[in-house]
Amino acid sequence: MLNQYDIIVVGAGHAGCEAAYCSAKMGNKVLLLTMNMNTIAQMSCNPAMGGVAKGQIIREIDALGGGTGIISDKSAIQFRMLNRSKGPAMWSPRTQNDRQVFSNEWRLLLEQTENIDFWQDMCSGIIVENNVVKGVQTALGIEILSKTVILTNGTFLNGLIHLGEKQFGGGRAAERASTGITEQLVSLGFQSGRMKTGTPPRVDGRSLDYSKMEEQEGDSPASKFSFSNTKALQKQRSCYITYTNKETHEILRTGFDRSPMFNGAIQSTGPRYCPSIEDKINRFSERDRHQIFVEPEGWDTIEIYVNGFSTSLPEEVQLKALRTIPGFEKAKMFRPGYAIEYDYFPPTQLHQSLETKKIENLFFAGQINGTTGYEEAACQGLIAGINASHKIKNKKAFVLTRNEAYIGVLIDDLITKGTDEPYRMFTSRAEYRILLRQDNADIRLTPIGREIGLASEEAYKSVKRKINGTKQLIKDLKKIGIAPSVINPFLKSKGSSPIKQQVKLSSIITRPKVYLDDLLQYSPDAKKKAELAEKEHGDVVSQTEIQMKYEGYIDREQDQAEKMVRLEKVSIPENIDYKKLKSLSTEAKEKLSEIKPATIGQASRVSGVTPSDISVLLVYLGR
After folding, report:
1. 121 neighbors 35 (Cβ within 8 angstroms)
2. pTM
3. CA spacing 20 to 30 A to 73: which of 14, 100, 189, 545?
4. How far apart (Å, rounded) are the C-alpha atoms in residues 164 and 299?
């Protein structure tokens, strides 16, 4: 047990599992240290993966060679592609998942991965010599040595659970908090803060009347997350939608004087985009109702997750209010909702690799960095795992840029801007979202994943077939013409202008409400070419349609991205003394000294740094 490890991962949540899995796949000897072996990859909050922007992140993790997409597919009970009514840059895959299967599948994958050892214990501190981490100390008094350490402590650092006027220590319901690490890191010079998150009550599905709710079925046919050979769902479980009402809100208000949200018990900041139900009715008092999603927790369980009803009000108020919601009149509660406060460390204290600036070989990933969400945590775990491996092998840091991946946007936002509220990913955070679609994550990232030794050769060959097949089909469709007499009746049915002479199919496909599958029915030659391409790779036709339909937008965004890349290539020396650059604004001197951006591109995104400040830096660097 006291063997030296290459990497110790502290915490086995979504970040920890991905960090351990990826770093072990890259040939490192890994120890996964967790307080409870039975809660590996626990879905602490909602039983779902993906969603707007988050689904893109899972596809990116999968394309690079991570495990989250595969596990999400294996545990899925419903699949939906969100935002299909919008352009493909907004399409976002989402699954409802069986939380028990999700956890079991992650544990099985980790146990079957060579180079991973496990130890059940609480990490009480890290071992540091000369500002370099050397291992960890555990609550059992054991010292375990390693070359690098990745902290993925989730909500456990000095976790404090609030339920009405009750408070008790814990990182999750019925699980103790982790103590000692925050205090040690602060003594080493780190800044820490407090954040809040919450969870809704769980109810007995047998006590609900679904006939009073709107059924929300999965897609037919269902798709999946992973680009590998996981199976798409053949059967699915439905979710349901219902609404709160004025009576619900009045009952909830009766508990406000005992709410930790309003009586001063909670001082920290919660997620703005996922507020508690009491926060919703307080902030949006003009609204008569709020949407509630009724989500099953798995295939065989009767437990239901009441999405949209996150709360820390007294349990009797929660139940009384729930029973005013249509379909919940006879609801039986399994466990109440609660809020939890926990420590985090402002992520401006990290390099782009997620290694800390103060202690060498120490990495942070997940909620310790101020993020919220399984997907945000998992992608940080993957990046920390890759970079811990690179650090050991004296390789340069692995960094994804903002035009390469949502993962790159997330990490750049964190280390450049920091966050004082739980950070959640949105498509609006990405300035190049037409390039960063969920459908092309494998094209963007699998070659990179193969290069660093994470994505398989089989995955790489599949991507090459997709790329080559798409290029060929686009080339073919630009040569194939179609006559007015053949296509005009179809165009009329779509409210589109008729053509007066034969044109190429490629010019028709750019029109609104016109899809490639429709056009193929009017051109036997094109249909034959498409069928041949689809045999080569199943995603070629859909990829061809997106690339042809949005070619102008894609090209324009690519040009903008290339201009940004030029700034990203201008490195800033780490030892630069900004205070000596007299022409910089005072705010720029302070912010740049704190953040220490690695490139001009990163410096330009630091809050308070103006274009004139960037010009001063470029002059100083001789550019």
Report:
1. yes
2. 0.94
3. 545
4. 32
